[in-house]
Design a protein that fits this description.
Elements lengths: L1 H9 L8 H7 L4 E2 L5 E2 L35 H5 L5 E11 L2 E8 L1 H8 L20 H14 L5 H7 L8 H4 L11
Antiparallel strand pairs: 1-2, 3-4
């Protein structure tokens, strides 16, 4: 897999990799109900980088014990977009291990994460369409980028958007521990 991704990058075609999935397969943590990585040491408080290599490395084992313990789905309760289901889940297999996470409407999550809602520190308030599509999200991001103050550009490095950054599911997760923003 790494060889194909490296070849694609070298040819200029690009490659897509989920840092979260790579981290779970590498044994760094498990998925929380909110579909994000939780580690035993840092909970929700980490940033990820993936290094692709063709080196012959022995992989660590995936964690068997779930880091996301029963907190009654606080992440879903605090989500202003109602993007994280409280009851509906999705189960799939990852490297031979069963993973169960909340059903997530990613477009709704992106709407609040990417600065289209002032209640999540967005710079431009926009009404979220009822039948939100990825095309709606893309067009709204362009409007936010065009209307945001120039000093907001520095935030793009961390959040991938010049708008806001929701993250309420992260900061309200009880696994955030001492690394939780105050």
């Amino acid at each position: 897999m790494a060889e194909a991704a490296i070849s694609s990058l070298k040819s200029g075609k690009g490659a897509s990799i989920s840092h979260r999935h790579a981290a779970v397969v590498a044994g760094l943590g498990t998925f929380g109900w909110n579909n994000l990585l939780l580690t035993p040491e840092f909970g929700t408080g980490q940033r990820l980088v993936t290094i692709l290599t063709t080196a012959d490395l022995q992989p660590d084992r995936m964690l068997k014990e779930d880091v996301c313990t029963d907190c009654n789905h606080i992440c879903a309760k605090v989500c202003p977009a109602n993007a994280i289901s409280r009851e509906e889940s999705i189960t799939y297999e990852l490297a031979g291990q069963k993973v169960t996470v909340a059903k997530l409407v990613k477009q709704k999550c992106s709407w609040f994460h990417d600065g289209m809602a002032t209640e999540t520190f967005g710079t431009v308030e926009m009404k979220m369409p009822e039948d939100l599509s990825w095309d709606d999200v893309r067009k709204a991001r362009q409007q936010v980028d065009a209307r945001s103050p120039p000093q907001q550009f520095s935030r793009r490095i961390v959040t991938q958007t010049t708008g806001g950054h929701c993250g309420l599911c992260l900061v309200n997760c009880p696994k955030g521990g001492q690394y939780r923003p105050r």
